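Now for our target.
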Amino acid sequence: MSMLRLAILFLLGLVGAVAVRAEAPRDRVHAARVALEAGRAGEAAAALRALAEEQGTSANLQLDLGIAEFAAGRVGEAILALERAHWLAPQDGEITAALEAARERAGLGVSLVPAWSRGRDLLSADGWAILGAMALAISCAGASSRLLFRSGVVRVRRGIGAATILATGITLGAALACVSLALEARDGISVASGVSLRVAPFEGAESRGALSEGERVRMGDRHGGFVRVRTGDGRDGWAPRESIASIVSG
């Protein structure tokens, strides 16, 4: 057998292996959806959780997981998955609608999205970082070009100046969006029911009330098995670390 034929067979085998590996997760998601439709929500959620741990996550996978978890009665885990889906694809209307519906049905109320954040949610964190880097490169190139064309045509210099100003504005906007998203990366979800919010990081400390399952909190310092959190209504206290799951996680 010639070397050319061996090389072709090797490439065909490699392509086939990649296709099988790509198809397997889709088959598992489909099987989970079938289980969910058959009323086996717990089985569907377990399968999707395992897939996310093995293959990595995506917005669509977290959306499916959130729906399955909610159907299985795991409200906190459901909202956690939907929040993760929204983090990965904030511009996806289906994910946003599913998250708001889950929050409302859980009695948490529909979260009001500030008007200023709607523009930010047009892109994901990666999208803003890429856009900002590209705009910064254009801004730097424009500034350099204006120095080179000091004695050039006025119209050309004005065009370069306008493009530089626009690129600089986009860079600053992207930077602000990234900072805002970085702050939200400290948020977590209460995945347990009736978690006490305590004044100090130890069992037996005075309680400041309980966190609702699925409630979103801002995470802060950690001490022992506790994490300090601040709720949306301004309450501050310590909760068991295992009861709070980070929205942004591996």
About this structure: Confidence is low (pLDDT under 50) at residues 6-23.
